[in-house]
Design brief:
Helix 3 runs parallel beside helix 4. A hairpin with a 5-residue loop joins strand 3 (217-218) and strand 4. The longest helix is centred in the first third of the chain and has 39 residues, at 60-98. The protein is 47% helix and 8% strand. The chain has 255 residues and is mainly alpha-helical. It is built from six helices and six strands. Among the domains are: 1-98, Methane Monooxygenase Hydroxylase, Chain G, domain 1 (Up-down Bundle), CATH 1.20.58; 182-252, Ribosomal Protein L9, domain 1 (3-Layer(aba) Sandwich), CATH 3.40.5.50. It has helices spanning 10-22, 33-53, 60-98, 110-135, 147-157, 238-246, and strands at 182-183, 205-210, 217-218, 224-225, 233-237, 250-252.
Amino acid sequence: MAEKDVVITYETLFELLRIEKNREDLQKLSESFFDDVRAYLNDKKYSFDSQESQSLLFAADDKEKARLEIENIKKILKQLYDLREKKIINTSVNKARTGVTLINTANMLPSERLLFDSISMVLTEFRKNILFRLACGEVPNVDSLPDSVVSKLNCDLTSSAAQEPIPASSSDEDEEGTGGMHFRAAEEPKELKTTPNFSDLRADIKKVRFLAAIGEIVGPDLKIYGPYDEGTVITLPNELARVLVEKKQAEEVTN
């Protein structure tokens, strides 16, 4: 059935709930879903109120049937919302944990996209301020919600569409302090243990030259970079490069 042909009835709501339950991914809803449901539910309530005001013309069992139908509609809506909310939260958690920026949000309604963006940003910010700080031996910053999150949420809440993509997550956002890097003691030069994939960091990389030999570095994405010899010139994520320069362990190469 084409999306524009969908008419909200008790049966269609029940079918939407059944499909949402049986499929792992978030299912597509009409962009007018909320308006259609609101109109359908208000129509049901109006019919019920009319029966109440004309009680002599309607049997008691008819009124009870109408009341139960309204209650069942509300239960279906709650279950459908709970299922979709859970899927959105799980997707937000996965984005914060993996740093993946290409998330399919096509089946999210505008309000659901706002929920997804907001949860993802909060999780990412707290992950940086707790996990990444612990990774470099610093005290986690849990005093309050980061200002960057508050500002972004305020901006989103005043936006009518909330459709713009969220800035990339923990792997390429700016971090405070040491940026979540943990430094180990330099060892004898050896082959690079891991080769980072910078395909999603091309707009946020910097070339540096090491001023001294350095051991393995655990970056904000918890990947291992290094070890590097003195004089090595390499392109690194901007945040990692910034921390190395601040610690006088590398210098920026501009050409």
